[in-house]
Specification:
The chain contains five helices and 15 strands. Strands 7-6-5-8-9-15-12 form a seven-stranded mixed beta sheet. A two-stranded antiparallel sheet has the order 1-2. A hairpin with a 6-residue loop joins strand 1 (about 25) and strand 2. The protein is globular. The chain has a domain at about 70-205: Rossmann fold, CATH 3.40.50.150. The termini are far apart. By secondary structure, the protein is α/β, with parallel strands linked by helices.
């Protein structure tokens, strides 16, 4: 069913390009579509009409591509938590052994709580978990578990949604978002206490032709990382064991 859905998106993309020929054009690094992007609610130029991926995924893809250029990075085993379809396909091509995991989903290899990952120490060369760490009760325990299962020189890519300047740890789960932690710009310090090195990759570090910014309206004035022109940046942290 998913394959049919993606095929239909690819079929519709040329028509969207024709109907929106006056809009600004961008290059999707994931599927190589070049043309106008779709708006998503109040976010301008957000969605690629061919592959359907958004700003966040495009930035993460570029960070991953840069990592894969490093010949020292082992591509033997990866753990993909809360797997996204586009990255699932990429990782299966890049890595010899691919394992997906989630707490509840049925379309994964393993079901587990990220606070208690059922793998031996130093099992994986990479762990990818995007917008996951805001949910566990004890996010520091989850981060420590990710570090534990990484091989020496392994890499963890752990983006979180940045919704405040300073992180707010909740006593009770948010009734709508279900978050236990509302990350701020200081959240990455938690990684620095556990990993040997943390690299911060910002959207503005990559070519603007890929449209990696979140435009005005999605988070309002309270959202951090404003560039002052109606655009907001995003961050992908790369953590080294």
């Amino acid at each position: 069913m998913k394959n049919i859905e993606y095929a239909l998106k690819g079929f519709r993309a040329p028509f969207f390009k024709i109907l929106n020929r006056e809009k600004e054009r961008f290059l999707c690094p994931i599927c190589n579509y070049f043309g106008p992007f779709k708006d998503k609610n109040t976010r301008l130029h957000a969605k690629c009409p061919k592959c359907g991926e958004l700003e966040r995924a495009r930035l993460q893809f570029l960070v991953l591509s840069k990592l894969f250029e490093n010949k020292k990075l082992s591509t033997n085993k990866i753990l993909h938590i809360a797997p996204e379809n586009a990255f699932r396909k990429l990782f299966k091509k890049k890595f010899i052994s691919y394992t997906s995991g989630d707490m509840f989903r049925k379309d994964v290899d393993e079901n587990f709580d990220i606070q208690d990952i059922p793998f031996e120490n130093e099992t994986f060369d990479m762990v990818f978990a995007s917008h996951v760490l805001e949910y566990p009760d004890d996010d520091l325990k989850a981060i420590s578990e990710i570090k534990r299962i990484l091989k020496p020189n392994g890499v963890a890519i752990l983006p979180v949604p940045l919704v405040h300047d300073l992180t707010h740890d909740r006593k009770e789960r948010h009734k709508i978002t279900r978050m236990m932690h509302e990350p701020g710009l200081d959240y990455f310090k938690r990684f620095e206490t556990i990993f040997s090195n943390v690299e911060i990759h910002k959207a503005e570090m990559y070519p603007e032709k890929h449209q990696l910014f979140i435009y005005r309206g999605d988070f309002g004035n309270g959202y951090p990382l404003s560039l002052g022109d109606g655009r907001y940046s995003d961050i992908v942290p790369v953590c080294y064991a």
